[in-house]
Design goal:
Order of helices and strands: HHEHEHEHEHEHEHHHE
Oligomer: single chain
InterPro entries: KR_dom (IPR057326), NAD(P)-bd_dom_sf (IPR036291), Sc_DH/Rdtase_CS (IPR020904), SDR_fam (IPR002347)
Family: Belongs to the short-chain dehydrogenases/reductases (SDR) family.
CATH architecture: 3-Layer(aba) Sandwich
GO molecular function, one term: oxidoreductase activity, acting on the CH-OH group of donors, NAD or NADP as acceptor
CATH topology: Rossmann fold
Shape: globular
Number of domains: 1
Keywords: NADP, Oxidoreductase
Largest sheet: 7 strands, parallel
Number of strands: 7
Strand order of the largest sheet: 3-2-1-4-5-6-7
CATH superfamily: NAD(P)-binding Rossmann-like Domain
Protein name: Ketoreductase domain-containing protein
Bound molecules: nicotinamide-adenine-dinucleotide
CATH class: Alpha Beta
Strand content: 5-15%
Length: about 300
């Protein structure tokens, strides 16, 4: 009863405006909730901005790059492969052309710090003034399936280098560019802040039944921790950072595993609460959410999108 009374008093005070504040209710609402004037679908818009996508030559990165174009963003695609896969790439080009958006594809090895620096300098410098860079989606990654007793030190370092060091280098390069161009940004909602999304994995949270992939899982757990620390350093300066931890997705990465171990799809399907594996298109929503103003109060967090695999 006491708590109900306190709640009722608070409601009353809010309705009338805090005594002596001199702020009318309308003004107070505008200060307190700058996103409230945007109709809900507009919260998910990515228009008037540029988003950088790594690992964009195929799989998750290319599928989400297409979704970002459909959401109104110019997109800078980066990947170690010399060219993105067809026919998907041509479809993204067509979508961008139809909407008058800018879409580029360039080579980048995310483990090479000087390449990363120049790729991000160039992405920020060549963004259209009407479409400043405001987002990074980092999908580049590699898998290693090997008994831990057999893993050579070079292989261990390679996976950590691509998955964890690469995540750090692209986040750092993005933050250096964005923070230097937006020195007075802060953590308020509704401004022109930026959002970094790193692709982790549910494998950063668990040991996978049927897979010997200690190195990969350690690298992805590192991505989750990186997000928390970088959020601590950058969020009050207007730069949010979160991760998505997908469950099993049918892409070239898992196709290679299924070639080697044909029993895996059935094993993993049994462990999914939804009774199936996922496809890359199912990660468009989570990525758009985290890159847009819809997630304005979310930073330093990991979004598990795993069909319930880790819920039991
Ligand atoms: N497929 C899954 O089941 C699954 C599950 C959880 C997380 N993930 C993660 O999702 C992300 C995308 O995976 P995917 O399934 O689309 O795999 P994918 O192999 O199809 O795509 C990965 C992309 O990263 C690129 N890449 C690799 N090394 C690079 C480097 N050094 N520099 C730049 N680009 C590089 C590859 O060329 C490729 O285009 C990865 O981080 C992966 O770990 C995948």
């Amino acid at each position: 009863m006491v708590s109900e009374k306190i709640f009722a008093d608070n409601v009353k005070e809010t309705e009338n405006g805090p005594s002596g504040s001199g702020i009318a209710n309308g003004e107070e609402a505008a200060i307190a909730a700058p996103l409230a004037t945007i109709a809900a679908p507009g919260l998910f818009s990515l228009s008037a901005r540029t988003i950088i996508v790594t690992g964009a030559a195929r799989g998750l990165g290319l599928t989400i790059a297409h979704a970002l174009v459909e959401s109104g963003s110019d997109v800078v695609c980066l990947d170690i492969l010399p060219a993105p896969v067809e026919p998907q790439w041509s479809q993204v080009v067509q979508s961008a052309n139809q909407r008058g958006l800018k879409l580029t594809y360039s080579h980048l090895n995310v483990t090479d710090a000087s390449q990363v620096t120049s790729a991000f300098e160039s992405a920020f410098a060549s963004a259209r003034p009407s479409h400043p860079v405001r987002g990074l989606l980092h999908c580049a990654g590699i898998q290693l399936l090997k008994d831990a007793l057999e893993v050579e030190p070079e292989k261990f370092r390679q996976v950590i280098d691509v998955n964890l060091t690469g995540s750090f280098l692209v986040s750092q390069a993005f933050a250096r560019e964005w923070l230097s161009k937006n020195p007075s940004a802060n953590g308020s909602a509704g401004g022109n802040g930026a959002s970094i999304v790193l692709i982790g994995s549910m494998s950063g949270h668990i040991a996978n039944f049927g897979l010997e992939n200690a190195v990969y899982n350690a690298s992805k757990a590192g991505v989750n921790q990186l997000v928390r620390n970088l959020a601590y350093e950058w969020s009050r300066r207007g730069l949010r950072i979160n991760s998505i931890s997908p469950g099993y997705i049918r892409t070239a990465m898992t196709a290679a595993l299924f070639d080697e171990r044909p029993y895996l799809p059935e094993l993993w399907t049994k462990a999914s609460l939804l009774g199936r594996l996922s496809t890359p298109d199912e990660f468009r929503g989570p990525a758009i959410y985290l890159l847009s103003d819809a997630s304005s109060f979310m930073t330093g967090a990991d979004m598990l999108v795993d069909g319930g695999h880790t819920a039991h």
